[in-house]
Amino acid sequence: MKPGMKPFSRKQQRSGLTLIELLIALSIGAVGMTAVISLFVVAMANNSRSQRDSTATLLSQSILEQVVLAGTNNVANIALTDCLNNNFVINTAGGAAPGVGAALTAGGDIDFSQAAPGNNYSMIYNVCRTNGQTSQYDVRWNVMDMNVSGATIYTRLVRVSAKPVGTTAANSYLLPVTLRGTAAVAEN
């Protein structure tokens, strides 16, 4: 030993990590990484669900606007084509309460537990994604004449709803949204 140097104590010689301490640190790190990875998986699933719900709402809004723009007295059938070139006809004819087309719940929303209506008041619409995948949406609508005098319909209530095909309340946190709009005769 050189002059002026002190001998190492046992405490100074054992300053590294033991194998047990290393295993404990790695297991804590693994638990933390598992939690972070599961957080990313849940976030991606929520993002996908939000995208489907937003697309359904935008599709409902598009149909609602077309039916409302058709007016009240001219019974128009509107042609629509999806991304797979399937042609659909949107029937805009209304009727007395509860309306014509899709069945309604007690709260006035479109009832997806009932069979899809015929006579061009429903469709299975395809939306093509940029990644080459296609999503299908069950779109239904109901048209009710509200203010009628003779042959003139002054006000019409339109309800439209869409939901991704194959989703139910059990596997989707959000239920389909029913959008409502009114068509009215323009006064001169």
Record the SSE blueprint.
Blueprint: H1 10-13, H2 19-69, E1 77-81, E2 87-91, E3 100-101, E4 122-128, E5 134-149, E6 152-164, E7 178-184
Antiparallel strand pairs: 1-2, 3-5, 4-5, 5-6, 6-7
Quickly give the structural class.
alpha+beta
- On the 0 to 100 scale, the average pLDDT is 86
Q: How much strand? A: 25-35%
Order of helices and strands: HHEEEEEEE
Number of strands: 7
User: Main β-sheet, in a few words?
Assistant: 5 strands, antiparallel
Tally of separate helices: 2
- State the helical fraction: 25-40%
Number of domains: 1
Poorly predicted spans: none
Radius of gyration (Å):
31 Å
Summarize the structure.
With 188 residues, the protein is an alpha+beta fold. It contains two helices and seven strands; from the N terminus they run ααβββββββ. The chain starts with 9 loop residues before the first helix and ends with a strand.
